[in-house]
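Exercise: predict the fold of this chain.
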Amino acid sequence: MAGPNRILLIGETARKHDEASAAGTITPGFLIKHDANGAVVAHSTAYGGGELMVAIENGLQGKMVSDNYVTGDKCFFHRPMRGDVLWMLLKATGGTAAIDSDLASAGDGKLIVTGAATGAIKFKSMEAIPQAASDQRIRVRVP
């Protein structure tokens, strides 16, 4: 089933969008973080905390959610707030997501199903997604 061609599905964009240089390959929908040089990279700590930032598609250049950013590209991202709905990536080995499952960082920009991981950046699944052999897009909300 084809999905939307945007990452931010519900949420206000004013003052919540930003940009930084990519320091590696980043797929729109990845959970990201700043590195020591101010560039952005995939969030690299499984179940880790930090500032909530999600890479979005480069719509200004006509790019789609399937178009990756590479090192040196200007990466656009959104700082989600409670109630925002995003189209992110569930890792292939990230478990089976039921509606309202807790999701956290898989340590590579994608999400995994989690329990009560203290301090983790968390999302809630808005759809049921069975574990699969490849990464899958999933609608999530910020609780």
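Check your answer against the key: Residues 27 and 100 are 24 Å apart (CA to CA).
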